Amino acid sequence: MTTSLARFEIAGLSVRDLARTYGTPTYIYDSKTMGTQIESLRPFDVVRYAQKANSSLAVVDFMRHKGALVDAVSAGEIRRAIAAGYQSGGDPPAIVYTADIFDSEALELVLANDIHVNCGSPDMIDQYGDRVSEGCITLRINPGFGHGHSQKTNTGGEQSKHGIWFQDLGDSLERAARKNLRVTGIHVHIGSGTDYQHLAEVCGAVESFALQAGPQVISISAGGGLPVAYKQGDSEINIEEYYNLWNATRNRLTEAFAHPVSLEIEPGRYLVAEAGYLVAEIRAIKRMGSNLYYLIDAGFNNLARPILYGAYHPMSVASFDGRSLSEVASVVVGGPLCESGDIFTQEEGGFVRSELLPTASVGDYVVIECAGAYGFVMGSNYNSRGYAAEVLIQDGRSHLIRMRQATEDLFKEEKIPETKEETL
């Protein structure tokens, strides 16, 4: 996370040159930062990338080359993982399908490619078991409590749809046995945070669930939810303490089962958030009463986190002509969409706030930082605007990894039906 209000480089390359080369808005990813984050998790037996955070092929491929396995939550993500070079099968499985349902495409793809399944609903056990003669599955359990920076990101408790309710574990184990399926893994993911007392409760729950499942369990997953410090004062994760809690749990299970138990972690945001920057151009500056607005050419169709749950992103400004930026102003940063909620500086509930940024001119660039997770992947074509371009910086060079969506591509798959009705 940066503390500077003016930014001239991203991963050693000029913001101005990047913007001129690739246009705006554009996502820029720094591979070095992603690599550093992966390395910090090496104590875990398996680092499994939750690609829902950023599923661009080049990013998924980078994770593969760094030794991370991958988690997929849809048929499309399975196909992306395969396209990025992951092979089906393996021990541990290179690709795991984690979901609360099978749609028809996902089930057929799982079966055709021998993809390991992490079941989040009892019905998934039956639906998978009906199609195979035998097999191994993992169960994702909702322990009855959760944690997160927003209610919308809390993935545990009765208000969350995710996972098999903990009181239904016994029934799910019986379902699996009837279908000749071995439950070889227990997975719990309840949201983000750095509350280690709360984490100890999660570890205890996983241990209890694994003991209930029995010695057929050969792996446990800590899930994801590792927090990212988006602003000054946010808690930083202590990976050593985090690992030690989970490792102690794993060791007790290893002793109880008299065989090794693998410890997985499933980060998404933690690996990519701080590596990503959304570069946008200031197209208008205007005052509305007491508020000074910088209006940029990126909107919530490019980055939805602020409008979804008031997420904070640090920001900086780069000049288009190389001039220094020393004076600052309190500004509201908004986008081009025909929506009052198209504001990047807002609290949860839609309350507009201001951000201290350098005094800028039309043509300068706003850099929205810590934007590598849940940015592009949540994009849309709202207001008939195309998707941003994506660029990966690796070994001091920039690579275009996704072309900007052309306007004519917005409706190339649409069709006006033929009709004999007269036009008025």
Oligomer: single chain
> Nearest-angstrom radius of gyration?
23 Å
Q: Note the total helix count.
A: 11
How much beta, percentage-wise?
15-25%
Tally the beta strands.
20
Write down the overall geometry. globular
State the end-to-end CA separation: 58 Å
Topology (SSEs and partners):
Layout: E1 9-10, E2 13-14, H1 15-22, E3 26-30, H2 31-39, E4 46-50, H3 57-65, E5 69-72, H4 75-83, E6 95-99, H5 104-113, E7 116-119, H6 122-129, E8 135-142, E9 164-165, H7 169-178, E10 181-187, H8 196-213, E11 219-221, H9 239-257, E12 262-265, H10 269-272, E13 276-288, E14 291-296, H11 305-309, E15 315-318, E16 328-334, E17 355-358, E18 365-368, E19 389-394, E20 397-402
Parallel strand pairs: 3-19, 4-5, 4-12, 5-6, 6-7, 7-8, 8-9, 8-10, 10-11, 11-12, 14-16
Antiparallel strand pairs: 1-2, 3-13, 13-14, 13-18, 15-18, 16-17, 19-20
